[in-house]
Amino acid sequence: xxxxxxxxxxxxxxxxxxxxxxxxxxxxxxxxxxxxxxxxxxxxxxxxxxxxxxxxxxxxxxxxxxxxxxxxxxxxxxxxxxxxxxxxxxxxxxxxxxxxxxxxxxxxxxxxxxxxxxxxxxxxxxxxxxxxxxxxxxxxxxxxxxxxxxxxxxxxxxxxxxxxxxxxxxxxxxxxxxxxxxxxxxxxxxxxxxxxxxxxxxxxxxxxxxxxxxxxxxxxxxxxxxxxxxxxxxxxxxxxxxxxxxxxxxxxxxxxxxxxxxxxxxxxxxxxxxxxxxxxxxxxxxxxxxxxxxxxxxxxxxxxxxxxxxxxxxxxxxxxxxxxxxxxxxxxxxxxxxxxxxxxxxxxxxxxxxxx
Amino acid sequence: xxxxxxxxxxxxxxxxxxxxxxxxxxxxxxxxxxxxxxxxxxxxxxxxxxxxxxxxxxxxxxxxxxxxxxxxxxxxxxxxxxxxxxxxxxxxxxxxxxxxxxxxxxxxxxxxxxxxxxxxxxxxxxxxxxxxxxxxxxxxxxxxxxxxxxxxxxxxxxxxxxxxxxxxxxxxxxxxxxxxxxxxxxxxxxxxxxxxxxxxxxxxxxxxxxxxxxxxxxxxxxxxxxxxxxxxxxxxxxxxxxxxxxxxxxxxxxxxxxxxxxxxxxxxxxxxxxxxxxxxxxxxxxxxxxxxxxxxx
Lengths: 356, 297
What we know:
heterodimer, A: alpha+beta, 9 helices, B: about 300 residues, 2 domains, membrane (chain B), ABC transporter permease (chain B)
């Protein structure tokens, strides 16, 4: 299939720089996720790979070949968009056949039927084949749209927030279907999303983008446990990480002038830092060293997310569902000293470096 | 849905209800329509069954369907209709080709796009009679600029009975293509861009993309433009009347005008007007059926 390499890619629209000196290397058969907030340059990057936009600077390689001057058709990529982009007034079958009927391919009708048959079975849309596309539900439309990508047997699948327009239940099921599909096809997927759950659950590797730059590339585990800076730390993970200002002296962390807690040292840092602690590493238990009040409780079924108030600071903790807590109740808490992340108070960079 | 008035508004203060206000707006319009449209329509329907002549004080006699029978069996009237049909076909198809073509050209960004679009719309804002008069000058065999610039010598555009109708239709095309262009442009710009991107990634050729994506999506609005232009062309009067007095350009409206105001056959001309009305209704019905089909697909 295909390896995609972006080298020093910059894309500007007038004075606005959408993508800034971006380097990426996506391995063959990899499920690669571009994650970032709106305006981070994810979609622009994807469109440049597809050939819909030309990079202002830099080189795009597909299988070691510079494809900068190739149009979208020559690149042999498939694109699935959030808006589905189904061809109107055609049946599902005709939509699937559309890319195959291109004269460049010279496929026989029997071959076309075979491929449509395979794709529709894979996506379980066989019963929809003779329907007009405007009679489909959102999930069905997106399946057809993915099917239109599959029939082409492309080098790369490019997906631009394909699940964002779907409702939560459907999103969840299509998420695992997509991952499953990618593994079965063994194809290279580049998947754009702003939803960190999608990134974490599907990606082999994630590139976190912000303001046109790559902040961090790594496996979901990497990105989660060892975020490069406070941006990645707070973007990945739900409920979000607690970021608390404070200072460090020896093995003792003084957090926001409200409480003190021990940490396991990993970097030779003293003085002001930002502490990062994930809600699941905050423990609410009787006999713990610090006191807080319950500010808010969110019941998620399998667990509860409680917001603790310590002085003026709010801090979230994940507690088992069976724990009974009431708002404004006084509780005691501690944190897992091994899991505390240290970020530079000014730059927000992780002070532990790259060690996991 | 009837919403209640804001209790502090002046209307509420005066004790007006929503229904009162609605009636204040609607009743004048209804009255106007009844007096100036519906009443004359029915009145002329009545006249169409009589031998009424507006120029004399002769008693009016009911003649039943005689006017209609006479008109429908008159070969001259049929020739008027044939001329009208020729005119409609040439002029509307010309407008669609030129107008849609222009819209395709304009449907991209280029410098001075707004200005050029506005300039292209100008012909349609002129008065029909004025357009007719200066095209008559343009067509003039002796000093007209058309013959001069095309090197056609003394071609009698409006004098030659074989081409006069087409010369008038050409003027109509010049004048009304912008209308088709405007509607097509609205249709074209409503085609989502991502469909074209999807098609380009799917390696569809330009022609394939045009016939598979552009045309089906623009078809409904293009059909609306065609309906309007057909109705207008069918009852065209001014251009042909101003530009040419040839019998070969005597479209049905001109015949109607002569019958009513030169020959003073008021009753008969009412009958003819009704025949035209029914024909236009039939044609638009066919279009509307197509339109619904185009929308469904």
